[in-house]
Amino acid sequence: MSSLTEKDRPIAQLLLNAGTCPRCVFRFCCVGSQASYKRPYKDLMKELKEFLKKNQEKEDTVCFEVADPPCKRIRLENTEEGPDDLNQNGVLRQIPLVTEDNTALESSTVKICSVCLGILQEFCEMDFVKKVCQKVKSADYQFTSFVFSVSLPPQLSVREVSVFIVSLCMSFRKLGLSLAKDDIVQLKEAYKWIIHPQLSEELGVPADGKSLFEVSVVFAHPETDEECHFLARACPDCFKPAKNKQSVFTRMAVIKSLEKIKEEDFHKHFSCPPSSPKNCCVALEIQCSNGAVFVAGKYNKYSRNLPQTPWIIDGERKLESSVEELISEHLMAEFKADSFNFSSSGREDVDVRTLGNGRPFAIELVNPRRIHFTAEEMKGLQQTINNSSDKIKVRDLQLVTRSAIGHMKEGEEEKTKTYSALVWTDKAIQKEDIAFLDDLKELKLDQKTPLRVLHRRPLAVRQRIIHTMKSEYIDEHHFRLRLKTQAGTYIKEFVHGDFGRTKPNIGSLLNRTADILELDVESVDVDWPPALDN
């Protein structure tokens, strides 16, 4: 058997006697050739039988000369006392070999592996591969590659330790040998070596570790679920309740505890080698998911009775819709996503319009079934949104990357914004009374958190700047004020003063009571996303 050498023979013998499948034999013998694992199970078992019978000495012994250079998988250790199993010539005494009549080996062809619990047996067959692919195809996802992930029962780690540390290492210490653990092939790795080519051929796309489309399988083995429980008593610090975890016996917690527990304590609580299971693992879940897709654009809001996001207080909806919903409902339908997350460069109040070139926004579409859209299709989607309501309008709708959204967030605090405010005063004014406002440049404000947002924002005094102002007289009690301000400035509070919480303010500058009747955002100076030919 080309995958195994003569020095692997005692390991293979012990593993098969412990009820281990051929592929797990390869793993513990540190076979790194992927091709060896991909061969049909029956062929592997047949060749393993032949390997264990081959080159027997007449006295039915297997001899290893100490002078032979040790391979990296088995090395001779210096011992103070010569092991009983070495003869005077330094030759390893007889290790019984399985024959065709050996029940342990014969039953291995039908028995479930005591280590992988059937993962490298039944679940490597084409029947299971087709079952996974049927699930993928019925989910109706768009994808050009896939990444395959596996969730294994945590008790598999316990069984591996039982076989490796206790059964193999104890046996080899008696022979003056030691088995190196670092090169053992991990179960997940071996499984993916086998399953990847089959899935790729059946789905017609390559496996790619960087793919955004994930096919995942969750395995469970109810029969042996309680095999981890003794670890919680031995290493309680490793098992602490965590959010979103149904059980404290996670794979990572089990592995951590296995690193801490003493070998003698492990041997007291767990059978070595592990018992043979009656049942195979079950595929508890076969799931598909696509990485999030991000869509960006700019929106105009023309209504003074429309919030940016759903306005719900104590479970009661105050207004029937929102900017977020008017845009996202069409994107959700076209991308066939599970959910979405809306973000924007700042926000306007429910009674404030957003005019000019609009406010930048981005929507994260979670687990979309459809991900490929041409520029023309995005234009059509934009038109569909615009035709659905006269309250909003969208422009420059496009697909973007997650990292590109950072440009929008940078502008939220660093850029400038231009507003138009309709101001009322209690005392009559003349044009000359407001003309001085046009000459004020880089006016510094101290704004204490407004009363109207104090329930959702921390109390603080924020310094903001009014870069320029331009007044337009209307009548004795009204004028329009155009302002260019630092992002994050509370304009309403700058006009009426918020009971003195914003200083200075229009009221204090004019020495009279002032209030704001209407407010429009005329521009948000964030050059993102890139303008398109709309």
TrEMBL record:
<keyword id="KW-0539">Nucleus</keyword>
<keyword id="KW-0496">Mitochondrion</keyword>
<dbReference type="GO" id="GO:0005739">
    <property type="term" value="C:mitochondrion"/>
</dbReference>
<dbReference type="InterPro" id="IPR020103">
    <property type="entry name" value="PsdUridine_synth_cat_dom_sf"/>
</dbReference>
<keyword id="KW-0963">Cytoplasm</keyword>
<dbReference type="Pfam" id="PF21237">
    <property type="entry name" value="Pus10_N_euk"/>
</dbReference>
<comment type="similarity">
    <text>Belongs to the pseudouridine synthase Pus10 family.</text>
</comment>
<dbReference type="GO" id="GO:0046872">
    <property type="term" value="F:metal ion binding"/>
</dbReference>
<dbReference type="GO" id="GO:0005634">
    <property type="term" value="C:nucleus"/>
</dbReference>
<feature type="domain" description="Pus10-like C-terminal">
    <location>
        <begin position="294"/>
        <end position="525"/>
    </location>
</feature>
<feature type="domain" description="Pus10 N-terminal eukaryotes">
    <location>
        <begin position="113"/>
        <end position="288"/>
    </location>
</feature>
<dbReference type="GO" id="GO:0031119">
    <property type="term" value="P:tRNA pseudouridine synthesis"/>
</dbReference>
<protein>
    <recommendedName>
        <fullName>tRNA pseudouridine synthase Pus10</fullName>
        <ecNumber>5.4.99.25</ecNumber>
    </recommendedName>
</protein>
<keyword id="KW-0479">Metal-binding</keyword>
<keyword id="KW-0413">Isomerase</keyword>
<keyword id="KW-0819">tRNA processing</keyword>
<dbReference type="InterPro" id="IPR039894">
    <property type="entry name" value="Pus10-like"/>
</dbReference>
<dbReference type="InterPro" id="IPR048741">
    <property type="entry name" value="Pus10-like_C"/>
</dbReference>
<dbReference type="Pfam" id="PF21238">
    <property type="entry name" value="Pus10_C"/>
</dbReference>
<dbReference type="GO" id="GO:0003723">
    <property type="term" value="F:RNA binding"/>
</dbReference>
<dbReference type="InterPro" id="IPR048742">
    <property type="entry name" value="Pus10_N_euk"/>
</dbReference>
<dbReference type="GO" id="GO:0160148">
    <property type="term" value="F:tRNA pseudouridine(55) synthase activity"/>
</dbReference>
<keyword id="KW-0175">Coiled coil</keyword>
<keyword id="KW-0862">Zinc</keyword>
